[in-house]
Design brief:
Rossmann fold, nine-stranded mixed β-sheet, globular, two-stranded antiparallel ribbon, alpha/beta, 25% strand
């Protein structure tokens, strides 16, 4: 299976020595070979060259009026029409909705950061082993507000109703960052949050002590999904 990684942002240069790049993070997470394409620099793969596509997070919003984002929306629709697999993380999760007729907007809960727990509402065949919840690192303020047609919500939380969803049998999105480490999550949210968000920041720091991300579980889920 040939998989293209659609990279929608760059790791800040000063954080790269400690944390690496997004392609490295995704290869470590998925444990699959990936060809990285920096779509945020307007560099796109050919649809016919790949069996599946993985879309990363981004500092941008999917509704931003930027040329590469409009191109990515169109490319996502082409992937969908071709019946090829697509897995989106955070921004990529939201791109599915934005491209396929759903809606994405700022959440009234503001930034979600640290480790969050999601309840599994329903399962699919690739979700083995079955669990009733999972923990995942979060760093977002946009959320899917309206689902595309033929969608199923697989996991949710009180602060994020669409935590994981599928569209038909070949598109999957997760609102979270299973590819992140705790330290990278912290370095990013500390530079993005305002100083007066200390209560939220402290809650995120406490989550690192109280919970662990279920990274291995999610690795298995996504591998199963891409191969199914």
């Amino acid at each position: 299976m040939k998989i293209a990684l659609l990279v929608c942002d760059h790791v800040p240069e000063d954080l790269q020595p400690a944390h690496g790049t997004y392609p490295l993070m995704f290869e470590n997470f998925l444990q699959l070979p990936l060809d990285a394409w920096y779509v945020c620099d307007d560099i796109f793969p050919k649809l016919e060259d790949y069996d599946a596509f993985v879309c990363t997070g981004s500092r941008h919003s999917v509704y931003d009026d930027l040329p590469w984002i409009r191109t990515l929306q169109d490319f996502t629709r082409q992937i969908y029409k071709a019946g090829k697999k697509f897995f989106g993380v955070c921004y990529g999760h939201q791109m599915i909705a934005e491209a396929l007729g759903g809606e994405v907007m700022r959440s009234g809960n503001g930034f979600l950061i640290g480790i969050h727990t999601f309840n599994v509402n329903q399962t699919d065949g690739w979700m083995q082993p079955e669990v009733d919840h999972y923990n995942v690192l979060m760093l977002c303020q946009d959320q899917v507000a309206k689902l595309p047609d033929n969608s199923r919500v697989l996991a949710s939380s009180s602060q994020c109703p669409v935590g994981m969803y599928s569209v038909d049998r070949h598109f999957l999105g997760i609102q979270g960052h299973p590819e992140f480490t705790n330290s990278y999550n912290r370095d990013l949210f500390e530079r993005r949050l305002k100083i007066d968000d200390t209560k939220k920041k402290n809650a995120a720091l406490d989550s690192f002590k109280e919970k662990k991300p279920h990274s291995e579980l999610l690795t298995g889920y996504i591998q199963n999904f891409l191969r199914s």
